[in-house]
Amino acid sequence: MLRTDERKIMIIGGGIAGLAVGKSLSDNRIPFVLVEKTDELGGHSKSWACMATEGCLSCHGCLVYDYDDEVSSSQIGQIYLGHELSHVERSSKGNQKVRIRNIQNGDETELEVYSIVIAVGFDVFDPKEKSFWGYGRIDGVMTLADLNIIMRLDQTEKLNPSQKDSVDLAFFQCVGSRDKSIGCNYCSQYCCGAAIRATLKLIHERPEFHFTIFYIDLQLPGKTLPSLMDEARAKGVSFLQGVPGEISQAEDGKLQVLLEVDGINVAKEFDRIILSVGQQPPSSAALLSHILGAPLNEFGFFDTGTLADPARSAVGGVYVVGSCSGPATIEDSVLSAGRVVSAIIADMNEAR
Amino acid sequence: MLNYELQTENIDYGTQKLSLLVVGKGLTACIVTSAIEALGLCAVNTDDITPYSGLFHSCDQASLQSILEPLSKASFLSRTSLNATPLEIAQNGHGFSVTFDNGLQRTFSCVFLAVDTLPAPLPEGIPKEAKVFEPEIKNSLPGQSICFLLDYKEITDPAIGLSAIRTALDNQLAGGESVVILQHTPVKGFFGESLYESARIAGVKFIRFGDHQPKILSVNDSKDAAFRFRIEVKDIIQNGDDIIVECHEIFPAINPISTNVPAAFKKLLSDETDTNGSLIQDSVHCVAGKSFRRGVYCVGPASGCVDLIQTLNAAATNAVDAKFWVEQIVHNMREDIMTVSDQCVRCLTCLRLCPHMAISLKAETSRSSVIVSSSRCLECGICVAECPMTALDLNAFSEGLFIKLLQRLQDEGAGKHVVVFGCYRSAGRAMSVVQLHEEAIFFPVSCAGRLSESILSATVLACARGVLVLGCHHGNCRSNNGTDWAKARVESICGRLNSVLSNSVIVSYQTLAANEPARMVKIVNEFVGSTKQTCD
């Protein structure tokens, strides 16, 4: 029988979900090993810009710094950056033998862990897959991720290089989400909120910006988004149902889209169009699924069976957290981390 | 600093002071109780609990059943409750002292508010014969039609919308007729698209309206009128045609509102409501319903959440957090964070201002004393800054450190530097990736709330050319209002300085987050520049 301090939990992935699990394990004095394939903790959340205007808009992006600090300074956590899981020798009782590989030099390290948490997150949809949006081909078409980089660097003046008095920007929602033709007929969960917050932030900094948000259906779960949308409306953001099918460049360099108004096609021009790119299953999912025996669902995310127990995978001792089991916001990921740690403690108590 | 050496295996969680109080009698209380017990902790219920609640929504019937099953077992429900309503919840050392309506007084380590609320009232414009949608409705008789109305005046939460569409499908499959009127088709991750598809195939009629709100009329002109309601709606999918829907029942799907919360909690959490009036603020530090008052949690409808899965996650997350608390109480695991000197006159300013309920009064006949709970304290220093006797100090961010800074400023001569005070979790982290202006001295503090007026004015007097305070954004402060305290103090000092020193020194306040390093450089550069202009 293993003592608590001999039962280490391995977390695969150092994004917000993995860090939140690490923080909570550390609080509860359960030792952990965190394996991250890149050279930095934080994942996608670390590249996110602050969305605060007069006050915080609760995008939860800055939480990643709090969790990173707590995990990095934990006395009972080991962190392996630039590593990935390469082998697992499963055992029904006690610890499992696992090997992790240094991605740079291929060196392998052997570890003994009690259970494994998959926290590998998501990949961002590449809008080049659909050429009619013109991403990478037409100047001025960018993704929400590109916009975040500009906002983070505090270079929003780049969105208005000729210093015009009025700039028209548009968000295209559901780019790579709710799209059966590419196997992504699901909602990516974060984009309505992200677009609304970004418009509020940009209008706050640059009153000359005017926004149109093209959407399929607005999804405003939770407590804050409905009031943020009301605020965006009040600040002049127009919400239009239906995402235009194609972006073309007009002769004056502006971006042109065709809208149907009362059955007639009308051309509308924008200076910039931001594609709200969706979440896709992580590229590492297939290999990890093979190594751990944890199945994937029809969309390629880790399958957690019913909604009633989203923390446990189909394999004993393997847990799933955050967006690798389905699109999630930062807040969702943090909540699912609590659920996973609760399952880990409950399972440990039962095994005792 | 946490002590990890201690073993927790031999803790008796059943002892009275370590038990957790669960307030509520419905499904939320069942979920919370089960989440607490799954971790080996001991829950004490105010009331007998039953898992029925018509308020919860789930987009998947199968999971609803598998959640309800263990919560419906007699072995789970046959527990003794206190059978009492809490009247007052006061902080007591490391835990809470709760007074009940039957005179009972007991100590608990944590308190969970898990009360179910009443359904939201019908919105204006809907006839009073209609009923707000609840997930457990009876199917209509064959040939009878039921209308489910979403997004009326306010976008319906996707969890509630999906629950309504699922019920519409069930009703259709049971031989009734269902019409769903909506503005936005709800989807939630993988759920939605397939449900919508199955409902359409089963014959559920969907009508989508645009900017024109549907008009709902009660048909009561004839006693044996076949239909009770008539709805006039413009269907944007059908080119904006006016459509008239007639139905026997109409269920508007309405977002929850906060009602029915026990008075003791309203008092305890008086300033912690969100934009909708539900409990616990929107702050990023209150994820899952964690109050700023450490050890107090709110889960379920009273926190504005009727999504079943979300509530399960919140209950589990908070239970894990609570376990951490209970163990801290047992071991008093943290080193002392604060000192209280004998200058203290027990005015209790600190007790009133502490956002985390970390300070309590140990009442004695001869000399009462102020007790600081190190496990609760987050070192915001609001109390230190506001203490009228300067009797309090933070050990890690002591007054001595500020004195050293002032000494340095004086040694280097008048007007050479501007001092930038910044909260470590925002400005402090941004600092790790930027190089500030060479004339700026950065001084990290545990929270902008620590910066008392006396520290700010002393820095000005110690020959700083300017003082810039960088707090966290309003609503993002880990201590709830430390940043707002800093803002008020800066404004107060500016007011006084301007009348005496005619603008020669600048004291300024700005807000920042950890992920705004570029903005931080800009703010500091602009500030340094503005102090130069004033000097010139």
Walk me through the structure.
The complex is a heterodimer of chains A (352) and B (536). With 352 residues, chain A is of the alpha/beta class. Helices cover 24% and strands 26% of the residues of chain A. In chain A, a hairpin with a 6-residue loop joins strand 4 and strand 5 (96-102). In chain A, helix 1 crosses helix 2 and helix 4 crosses helix 5 (225-234). Chain A is elongated and about 70 Å long. Chain B folds into four domains: 16-117 and 256-331, FAD/NAD(P)-binding domain; 145-252, FAD/NAD(P)-binding domain; 338-393, 2-Layer Sandwich (Alpha-Beta Plaits), CATH 3.30.70.20; 397-535, Rossmann fold. In chain B, 31% of the residues lie in helices and 20% in strands. Chain B has helices spanning 27-38, 61-72, 74-77, 158-173, 193-202, 263-268, 308-331, 349-353, 382-386, 399-412, 424-431, 453-461, 482-501, 517-535, and strands spanning 20-23, 43-45, 86-92, 95-100, 105-108, 110-113, 145-149, 177-182, 205-208, 215-218, 229-235, 241-247, 249-252, 296-298, 338-340, 359-362, 369-372, 392-394, 418-423, 440-445, 466-472, 506-512. In chain B, the strands form seven sheets. Chain B has a four-stranded parallel β-sheet with strand order 2-1-6-14, with helices on one face. Chain B is globular, with a radius of gyration of 29 Å. The model of chain B has no long low-confidence stretch (mean pLDDT 87). The chains are: A alpha/beta (352), B alpha/beta (536).
